């Protein structure tokens, strides 16, 4: 498929349909080869979404052999490598939380105890990055921070607690790096003769960059880079030597990759002729994003740009007075795109904004394909479990009680009619007469004064709510067990067994998996 020169890298410009041109370019290169040759091609992609799209594009070409479509993360799943199983992420976070708790006991002024699990999440993320980049804890411990502010020394001390975890076990990132190193050594000793390609990745993670270098140096290996800017002059590439000023530039990762491959920008060839939808806009954006040391080129090269009116045609600036208005404006634009059959995408790091846009689209029965999915905590089972855990360790308020009783999953083990009727009557009583902090005895007394079937319902509810205020210090496993038991009890209502509809449907199944995982990992 390729000439014998090494290493080789191809690219497609910003703005083009990357998966479509990737598939078209591969079909062009395989056009003169026998049909079965395509089945010997291995194509590594960076996301599951990309793999589905590429597979669909091949399917539209009719009956034919397909390349082996794999994810980069699939490398660590090769059983032939003999790698140990990685530590589950939840277990790692619980281990970190325990270490941080001990540190906070010794140094209470280091951070508030309420930040325990946030700190554990941050440390877990840092560990992933360190293992992906091949940075050992000793490298951080060896940093000289004596001439810096005192908080740098405190941070260094705080980070020292993760050192034992590096030596004992491996996380998924460390396992991925070991897999890449083993496979690279295997390829170097016995290079495969069939084509192996990596497409869609920029090499922003250290482990992925190592894999890309190994593949680019194979006899029939190649990289296909997305969004490579062909308009950057050599002087700009050279100005990216200083990572402190250039790291934020969108092309910096390509510069880092080129250094790793020891190639110049001119060595990166077009994968195929692919004209961007708006070349003038690409040139404008390329110039506007020049790194800080060369922003003076705006004055030099700016006058030579194409007509700016044409380059910015179709761009709109909306200065919304509130987040709600912002979400509604975006939803209206997406609605118009749906009505006219135009493909549209919302790209935003703000998950609150995307959820507000999704809610606005729902009023028009438009369901967007959210690549990030819906957080489990915002699903019906997730909200229910959050309502339940909020009952522990404090006096029960009428608002908390009613929020639980009115949840759609409460009493879902059998006919909810009586439950809803009694909940409504209890709410009227609490709103008019109180008490603000109802107890189980208060609920039973209210039911006993009635002439209907409220007493069994009230007694079951009171039994569930007793002894929730005083929660002793105990192992996490016991907290999880009580939380789950209470959730299942309230969900089934007066049904003899089961958990109602709590663990049903997709969200319920995922919530059950999470609770099972938490139960299994809590002892660690």
Overview of the structural elements:
The chain has 24 helices and 6 strands. It is mostly helical and 524 residues long. A 6-stranded parallel beta sheet has the order 3-2-4-5-1-6, with helices on both faces. Helix 8 runs parallel beside helix 9. The longest helix has 18 residues, at 89-106.
Which key features would you list for this structure?
524 residues, mainly alpha, Rossmann fold, 4 domains, six-stranded parallel sheet, 6 strands, 4% strand, globular
Report the order of strands and helices. Answer: EHEHEHHHHHHEHEHHHEHHHHHHHHHHHH
Q: Provide the domain count.
A: 4
Count the E strands: 6
Please identify the top-level CATH class of the largest domain.
Alpha Beta
Helix % is 40-55%
Radius of gyration: 29 Å
What is the typical, i.e. mean, pLDDT? 89
CATH level-two architecture of the largest domain: 3-Layer(aba) Sandwich
Number of H/I helices: 24
The biggest beta sheet reads: 6 strands, parallel
Distance between the termini: 51 Å
Which structural category do the helix and sheet elements fall into?
mainly alpha
Shape: globular
* CATH fold type of the largest domain: Rossmann fold
In which order are the strands of the major sheet placed? 3-2-4-5-1-6
Strand content: under 5%
The residue ranges in which pLDDT falls below 50 over 5 or more consecutive positions are none
Topology readout:
Blueprint: E1 9-11, H1 18-30, E2 42-45, H2 48-59, E3 68-71, H3 89-106, H4 116-133, H5 137-141, H6 150-159, H7 163-168, H8 172-189, E4 196-199, H9 206-216, E5 221-225, H10 234-239, H11 243-246, H12 252-261, E6 268-270, H13 279-288, H14 297-301, H15 308-311, H16 323-340, H17 351-362, H18 380-389, H19 398-405, H20 417-433, H21 440-448, H22 454-465, H23 476-492, H24 505-521
Parallel strand pairs: 1-5, 1-6, 2-3, 2-4, 4-5
Helix pairs in contact: 1-2, 3-4, 4-8, 8-9, 16-17, 18-23, 21-22, 23-24
